[in-house]
Every structure is written in C-alpha cells, then in structure tokens.
C-alpha cells in the first residue's frame, strides 16, 4: 500500500464525518472479508438502521492510512447515484475493539476507522452461488442495465472503477444493483492523458490491453484464455496492437479463431451482438494520424465509430470508419438487447432472497466440505473397526476386495453430514420474476416498447431520483426523449464527453482538484 500524504484524508469536509464512534453501532455479523478489511452488518443503536461497516485495515502502521481507502472515500463522497453504493459516513474507534461476539478482536492497532455504507442484502457472486439459483433473462437484463447505468454515471463523472466483478456488485431485496468497492478506482479528470497502471482489475476480468503490458508470470495464461475465446489479436482486428510492449512476447504462436459465436450459440441474436461488442479485443478506435498539427477526433454514432480529422473550416480531412472497437457503457445501454423481448424486468418485481454474500456462501461451503470429510473419516474408521482379526494377520484379503457382493456391514453409506444449504423460499412474490408491467405501460418506465416516447429511458420511473439531481442535467437519462432524435439519447450529446458538455455547462467554476470547486453542480455531485 502506498503512503498517504499527511492531511490527505480530509474527513473534516463534512462536519459530522469521523466525529462519531463505532460504538454508535452494534456489529451483528461479519459479511465480508476483503483484501483491505472486514465488512460487518451492523445496527445503528439510536435509529435501528441496518448498515454495513467496512473496517479499514491498518495492519501495517508504518505505511500510514491506506491509499486505497483514501481513494475510495474521496471518490464515493462525490458519487451520488442509485446504482453506486452510498457511503454514509466515517466512524472511528479510539481504543481496543470487540468483534461481533464482544471479544477483543486481537487487532494490533489500538483503534480503527470504519466506512459506514448503506446495507445491501447480497453481492452478485453470493447470490448466483445459491443452490438452484437461476436468473431469468429479464432479470439478467435488469441487473445488466443497472450495472451499465452505474458505470456510465462513473465515466461521465470521470471515474474509472477498475475492479468490476460479481462480489463488487451489491444487490438489495428491492432488486437494486449498486457498484461497490472503489478501492482501485481513480479519477481521470486531472490526468486525462496520463499513463494508468496496468496492474489493476482482478486478473480474470482484466482486458487484453492491460495484460499485454504486463510482466507477471501467470498473466500470459490469462491472455491465452482471452485469445482462445476472442481470437488472436493482429493488426487487422486491433490496429496498433503490435506496438504494445509485450505483444511480441505474448502473441500466440498458432492461429486462433474467434469462437464467441460458437461458444455462446445458445444466446439470442441481440445478446450475442452485445457480447461481441463488449468482448472486442480492440479497446478504442485507432486514431488517424494528425494532419499538420490537427488532432484526430473520435466520433461515435449508433455503434459505428470513426476517427476523423477536421480541418480549419470544419471540413473532414480524413475519416476512418471503425465498427469493431469495444463498446462503451453508454452505447451498451442503447443496444437492441435491452429493447427487445424479454425486456428488463422492474427491479421491484424480483423475488427476495435470504441474504447471500460471497463471504458467507464460501464459509457455508467450507463448513459443508468439512462435514463431508469428517463423515468420510468416520465411515473409514467404522469400517476398520469392523475388520475381522484375520485381516490384520495379512490373510483373507479376498474378503476385502470389492467383489460382486461387497460386504456392507449392514450399514448404508453415510450421507454427507452437516448443514446442507436450506434456504427459505423467496419471501417475495411467488412465481419468480415477472415482467413489468403486466398490463399497461409505466409512466416512462421499464419495458416501454416504444422507447422513443414519453421519456421511457433509464432514469425515469423505475429509478426515482430520490431527491438528488441527476448527473445528466435536464436532458439526462431521465426522460431523455426519443432515442436518437436530437442525438442526445441518454443525455450524452457529443462523443468524448466534452468538458462543457451536457453534464456540466461551460465548465466555469470547476475546481482543478477532484475535491474542490463547484463540481457538484457541474457533475451532479453532492457533498
Ligand atoms: N454496503 C454493503 N452491504 C452489504 N455487503 C457489503 C457492503 N459492502 C461490502 N459488502 C460485502 O463485503 C464484501 C467485501 O467488500 P469490499 O469489496 O468493499 O471489500 P474489499 O476489502 O475492498 O474487498 P476486495 O478484496 O474484493 O477488494 C463484498 O463482496 C460484499 O459481500
């Protein structure tokens, strides 16, 4: 962990932040164990509100306050959206602490700092891991759309999450999905052209352009997996790839065909189309060369991208069509996949499940495995105990060999002992997810077949603004008007989110740092 510069954690920005003690909360249960600390379900004593407490790991006191926590706090204080986890406050513990059972927690550090989050019933990994769990297509679309909406909001606000994976997607029993764990996130507002480290994103989810810049030994294997599915990169499907540092070391020695359509042949056409665009090797369109100092620009319309160079009088000097670059969150939201049957369901129509976090499901599985092993050991001991004495003298082996009628010792083979995962029936509406609405159209909400009317876009209806100004301004996602008409779609009127674009007026008053200035109005952020 990097050392935090003194004073970087400016918790005094919000007067109440950091002023309360963790004793205002009663820890109920551990629900997560991350690289950077434990997460507890807790109850605020005064209000009874259930929250999640994320303890910031301070194991290595010499390194100071972890930079990951500083980043997470700084970024989450700025992001306010229904698909991004809400950081409510920071609380501290001045002295030795107790765990959920009231025992001293053994932490060397005498005291601690906690982030207080709204509580979410599940993470996607835990939910998907439930025995017998199957998501309907409408449910998958519902989660996918929320994921992309949250991501798009982050990108508009110049934040890259950089660790999207199932355990970082939190879901509540109202069917809301929220992005969490911004410990690896960073803002690109002040450093647009700066180099970003390639050592981020959980390995399995890391894209090829980062893997190709790597030196770690286990990553070629990951690249190989990508190439096996997505085909080998070359200058045709990824112009410029041969200039990436490790391309020559890692390029496959044999030709590898793209197999996406074959592997996912059971997907419908629109799902496949979107998957194709999301798993495109080439991350961005190749910029055309500059002309006499004129910089090329990227233009994106209807998934057809091109790089253009515009001359002094607005004339296009050079254009290169590209249809094969990786899709952005914004364009993905516009994919046919989300606008064809079965349409994404209303989150509220989803069944409610018993809380399921990856940490808990892993723990249960581990316990079950232990029980099975114990049962197996007991069975073996039982068999040994019943061996006739003749066995021990080395005779009568034939009796032990499993013949056509092996001795059963009169007992049935033991069934795996221990708790099997018995989850209660969903407490929600029976019959699983249903599409919304059953009859009639919601006011600008989900499943509106005519997405071009009534503002039936992402922010309206099903995503109540909850008193927050949407980041997209008045022409934003909520009620953006006909898709395609006027070119604004979901509030994004121009490619590359120009500084003075639809999210923030002219840019006047925007502070130079992430924390300063009037950016709240600019980007829809609220302190
Ligand atoms: N607000 C929350 N509500 C409910 N559960 C949560 C919440 N925040 C985190 N969790 C649970 O704790 C787990 C770990 O949280 P988080 O990813 O924020 O911690 P981390 O230390 O950064 O973990 P990682 O090692 O994955 O980076 C999550 O996968 C989730 O199951």
UniProtKB/TrEMBL annotation:
Annotated residues that bind ATP are located at 54
Q: Which organism is it from?
A: Nyssa sinensis
Composition skew (Basic and acidic residues), residue ranges: 349-361
Q: Supply the alphabetized keyword list.
A: ATP-binding, Kinase, Nucleotide-binding, Serine/threonine-protein kinase, Transferase
Q: Which GO terms describe its molecular function?
A: ATP binding; RNA polymerase II CTD heptapeptide repeat kinase activity
Q: Which family does it belong to?
A: Belongs to the protein kinase superfamily. CMGC Ser/Thr protein kinase family. CDC2/CDKX subfamily.
- The name this protein goes by in its record: Protein kinase domain-containing protein
> Where along the chain is composition biased (Gly residues)?
476-492, 501-510
The superkingdom of the source organism is Eukaryota
Q: What is the lineage of its organism?
A: Eukaryota, Viridiplantae, Streptophyta, Embryophyta, Tracheophyta
Keyword Cell wall biogenesis/degradation part of the UniProt annotation: no
């Amino acid at each position: 962990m990097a050392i935090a510069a003194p004073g970087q954690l400016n918790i005094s920005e919000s007067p109440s932040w950091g002023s309360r003690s963790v004793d205002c909360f009663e820890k109920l249960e551990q629900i997560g164990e991350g690289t950077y600390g434990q997460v507890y379900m807790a109850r605020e004593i005064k209000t009874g509100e259930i929250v999640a407490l994320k303890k910031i790991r301070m194991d290595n006191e010499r390194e100071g306050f972890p930079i990951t926590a500083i980043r997470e706090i700084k970024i989450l204080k700025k992001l306010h959206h229904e698909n991004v986890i809400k950081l409510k406050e920071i609380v501290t513990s001045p002295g030795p602490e107790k765990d959920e059972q009231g025992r001293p927690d053994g932490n060397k550090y005498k005291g601690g700092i906690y982030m207080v989050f709204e509580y979410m019933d599940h993470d996607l990994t835990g939910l998907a891991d439930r025995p017998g769990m199957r998501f309907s297509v409408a449910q998958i679309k519902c989660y996918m759309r929320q994921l992309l909406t949250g991501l798009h909001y982050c990108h508009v606000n110049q934040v890259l999450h950089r660790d999207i994976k199932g355990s970082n997607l939190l879901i509540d029993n109202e069917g809301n999905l929220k992005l969490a764990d911004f410990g690896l996130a960073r803002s690109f507002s002040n450093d647009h052209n700066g180099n970003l480290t390639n050592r981020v994103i959980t390995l399995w989810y890391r894209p090829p352009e980062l893997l190709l810049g790597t030196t770690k030994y286990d990553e070629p294997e990951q690249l190989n997996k990508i190439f096996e599915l997505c085909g080998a990169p070359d200058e045709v499907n990824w112009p410029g790839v041969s200039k990436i540092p490790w391309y020559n070391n890692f390029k496959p020695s044999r030709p590898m065909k793209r197999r996406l359509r074959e592997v996912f042949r059971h997907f419908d056409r629109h799902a496949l189309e979107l998957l194709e665009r999301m798993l495109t090797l080439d991350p961005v369109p190749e910029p055309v060369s500059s002309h006499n100092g004129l910089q090329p620009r990227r233009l994106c319309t209807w998934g057809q991208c091109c790089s253009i160079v515009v001359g002094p009088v607005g004339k296009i000097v050079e254009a290169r069509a590209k249809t094969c670059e990786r899709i952005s969150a914004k364009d993905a939201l516009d994919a046919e996949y989300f606008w064809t049957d079965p349409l994404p369901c209303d989150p509220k129509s989803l069944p409610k499940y018993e809380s399921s976090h990856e940490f808990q499901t892993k723990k249960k599985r581990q316990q079950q495995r232990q029980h099975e092993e114990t049962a197996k050991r007991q069975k073996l001991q039982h068999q040994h105990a019943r061996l006739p004495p003749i066995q021990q003298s080395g005779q009568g082996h034939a009796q032990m060999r499993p013949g056509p009628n092996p001795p059963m010792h009169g007992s049935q083979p033991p069934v795996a002992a221990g708790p099997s995962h018995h989850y209660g029936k969903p407490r929600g509406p029976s019959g699983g997810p249903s599409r919304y609405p059953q009859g009639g159209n919601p006011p600008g909400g989900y499943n509106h077949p005519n997405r071009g009317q009534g503002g039936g876009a992402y922010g309206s209806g099903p995503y109540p603004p909850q008193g927050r100004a949407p980041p997209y301004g008045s022409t934003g996602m909520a009620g953006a008007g006909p898709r395609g008409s006027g070119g604004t779609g979901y509030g994004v009127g121009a490619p590359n989110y120009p500084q003075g674009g639809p999210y923030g007026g002219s840019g006047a008053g925007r502070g130079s740092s992430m924390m300063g200035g009037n950016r709240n109005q600019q980007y829809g952020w609220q302190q």
